[in-house]
Design brief:
The complex is a heterodimer of chains A (115) and B (114). With 115 residues, chain A is an all-beta fold. Helix content of chain A is 0%, strand content 49%. Chain A is globular. Chain B has strands at 4-5, 10-14, 19-25, 30-38, 45-51, 56-59, 62-67, 72-77, 86-94, 102-104, 108-113. In chain B, the strands form 2 sheets. In chain B, strands 2, 4, 5, 9, 10 and 11 form a 6-stranded mixed beta sheet that branches. Chain B has a 5-stranded antiparallel beta sheet with strand order 1-3-8-7-6, with no helix packed on it. Chain B is globular and about 45 Å long. Classes of the chains: A mainly beta (115), B mainly beta (114).
């Protein structure tokens, strides 16, 4: 079974530019989550999809961040325009919707650097 | 306000000995607790979980203990191996509403010395 994959692994952009991160969850996992780790601190929740629906986006920092999951498969997270404080590692995770849905499996992350 | 706290940023243990990683929480609505291991430049890897209705769960060298009255959990690794050297995160999931996100602690860097 393939794990969660994320693309790109690393992105360096200038302040004001746009970046789109992609996440492919484990096949069959309807739950998809985005998290962010800034400056080596704790990993913080951004939002949660169940299939193509946003279940919880309480962690999204502001309206410069837009997440989509059209078709309920892969997801994208767009930052537009990027600011310096958006730098960090963005993780995607997925889980089943049945038993043990609390076990979330993480991708390798995308390291975003805004200069 | 951090709801999940790992007060020890680092821990060093001799190979073959026991590693004990600790975690405290404040939210009584957490229903599951999980431990993740993270190597540099990789994502967190799920290790072991425990339901809030249990006090112990064991999987191979890894055992998680939960003390609900003290709002404290710990991860025991026996015996510790050099490959266990990584950052360990404690995480918790709330039962409240539709929220299914994990709340993480800040991590503990474990170094197992050969």
């Amino acid at each position: 079974e393939a794990g969660v994959t994320q693309f790109p692994s690393h992105s360096v952009i200038e302040k004001g530019q746009t970046v789109t991160l992609r996440c492919d969850p484990i096949s069959g996992h309807d739950n998809l989550y985005w998290y962010r780790r800034v400056m080596g601190k704790e990993i913080k929740f951004l939002l949660h999809f169940v299939k193509e629906s946003k279940q919880d986006e309480s962690g999204m920092p502001n309206n410069r961040f837009l997440a989509e999951r059209t078709g309920g498969t892969y997801s994208t997270l767009k930052v537009q325009p990027a600011e310096l404080e958006d730098s960090g590692v963005y993780f995607c995770a997925s889980s089943r919707t049945t038993d043990r849905d609390y076990e979330q499996y993480f991708g390798p992350g995308t390291r975003l650097t805004v200069t | 306000d951090q709801q999940v706290k790992q007060n020890s940023p680092s821990l060093s243990v001799q190979e073959g000995r026991i590693s004990i990683l600790n975690c405290d929480y404040t939210n009584s609505m957490f229903d599951y607790f999980l431990w993740y291991k993270k190597y540099p430049a990789e994502g967190p890897t799920f290790l072991i979980s425990i339901s809030s209705i249990k006090d112990k769960n064991e999987d191979g060298r890894f055992t998680v203990f939960l003390n609900k009255s003290a709002k404290h959990l710990s991860l025991h690794i026996v015996p510790s191996q050099p490959g266990d050297s990584a950052v360990y995160f404690c995480a918790a999931r709330s039962t409240g509403g539709s929220a299914r996100q994990l709340t993480f602690g800040s991590g503990t860097q474990l170094t197992v010395l050969p």
